[in-house]
Amino acid sequence: MGFFITFEGIEGCGKSTQVRLAAERLSRAGHEVVVTREPGGCPIADAIRAILLDARNSAMVPMTELLLYAAARAQHIAEVVEPALASGKIVLCDRFTDSTLTYQGFGRKLDRELIARLNALAAGSIKPDMTLLFDCPVETGLARAMARINANSAAREERFEQESLLFHERIRDGFLSLAATEPSRFVVLDGSRSIGEIETMVTESILMRLPAATARR
Predict the structure, then answer these.
(1) Is 93 annotated among the ligand-binding residues?
(2) Is 15 assigned to a binding site?
(3) Total number of domains in the chain
(4) What are the tens digits of pLDDT across the range 130-154?
(5) Which of 90, 133, 165, 216 yields a CA-CA distance of 20 to 30 A from 84?
(6) What is the pLDDT of residues 103-134, one digit of tens each?
(7) Which letter does DSSP use for residue 104 in this model?
(8) Domain housing 101
(9) CATH number of the domain bearing residue 114
(10) Would the annotation count 30 as a binding residue?
């Protein structure tokens, strides 16, 4: 089996940039790397992503949102994640089940036990070997996220950015709560530091945990 690393955090925490940088560094070192994201990662899941993140869909109820995430994940696991891990590759995923627990559980206040069951149903036996959590103040993250959205004229994926500060505070608290319950899986990093500083911490964290089985092929 390969090695599954997930990148988590609030909006604008810098995780997507670090996914790209980590992939570049691991690839240069000779590792086989697959970069993916949730929601999305394959055509069907990307189509669901467009529905989920479109601010025009503000009428979407929380249960619909949750079930769409589960549907996108089931397709993504079957098409991308499971085959890549089975072939021994390192998979870097921008968001995974922890985001569902925090956004729909802590944020939307849906039943967390129900969410956990849906996550297990969609992901099957696939669980992260390591999760990097990028933590930063909500105001900092949202300012970054909106700057990115305003710079992108093609697609405005901003349905969550339009939620209240309290909603995003609950999500941040949720992530930190999950990290506290699984310290052996989570690595919490200061997402308010510079990109270079965070990249160094990410690299060190990954190399410390990367098993010999995923060494250069």
Answers:
(1) no
(2) yes
(3) 1
(4) 999 999 988 888 877 777 767 775 5
(5) 133
(6) 999 999 999 999 999 999 999 999 999 999 99
(7) I
(8) 3-214
(9) 3.40.50.300
(10) no
